[in-house]
Specification:
The protein has about 200 residues and is mainly alpha-helical. It has eight helices and two strands, in the order E-H-H-H-H-E-H-H-H-H.
């Protein structure tokens, strides 16, 4: 079973990963976006880390809801609302339980992804974060390692896609050949989840 400490570790691992990869995310964003994806997420997850230290929510749902709120209030552009919605919807779906199962997390993450789809109007194949998150949510039923692999494969697959949503869609065919930064950062988020699980199992 997964408790609030597990979810705090997940968010801490995500913040550390975004710190490490911020420049790469910004480099990916440069040809097809505003060249600020890495720095925006870095600021947002730093705020998440601080808020979780100060408030110490005591349920998995409360951890994710607080994290989502912080991302919405501190991350510019579309990323803040989209990531915030993902975590808040997932947290809300987990409810007030002190511990949740992997199966419950998988179901809740699907609800979070549905929230992202509704907010951004994106579906799989549109070259967005959904291309990493949707397969990860489906694969989570088979474990954290499977979810991480599915997210990474989904992010890599966006390179060959033409963007149909977001700023990159304005480029039309010129968006082909660039890996989507949102899908890439989403894969980092799922990899951080697997890292948190490794810490438990280790």
């Amino acid at each position: 079973m997964l408790d609030a400490d597990f979810f705090r570790r997940w968010m801490a691992a995500a913040a550390a990963s975004v710190d490490r990869e911020a420049q790469r995310l910004t480099d990916l964003d440069s040809p097809i976006g505003d060249a600020d994806h890495g720095s925006n997420l870095q600021r947002g997850f730093a705020a998440v880390r601080t808020a979780l230290e100060e408030e110490a929510p005591d349920t998995p749902g409360a951890v994710l809801t607080l994290a989502g709120r912080q991302l919405i209030s501190t991350v510019g552009g579309a990323s803040g609302p989209l990531y915030g919605t993902l975590l808040r919807r997932t947290g809300k779906a987990l409810g007030d339980a002190a511990e949740v199962s992997e199966a419950q997390l998988a179901e809740a993450l699907r609800a979070g992804v549905d929230g992202v789809k509704a907010l951004g109007g994106a579906e799989a194949g549109d070259k967005t974060m959904v291309d990493a998150l949707a397969p990860a949510a489906d694969a989570l039923a088979d474990g954290f390692v499977a979810a991480r692999a599915a997210a990474e494969q989904g992010a890599e697959a966006t390179t060959a896609m033409r963007a149909r949503k977001g700023r990159a869609s304005y480029l039309g065919e010129r968006s082909v050949g660039h890996q989507d930064p949102g899908a890439t950062s989403s894969a980092l988020l799922i990899a951080a989840l697997a890292e948190a699980a490794d810490a438990v199992e280790g």
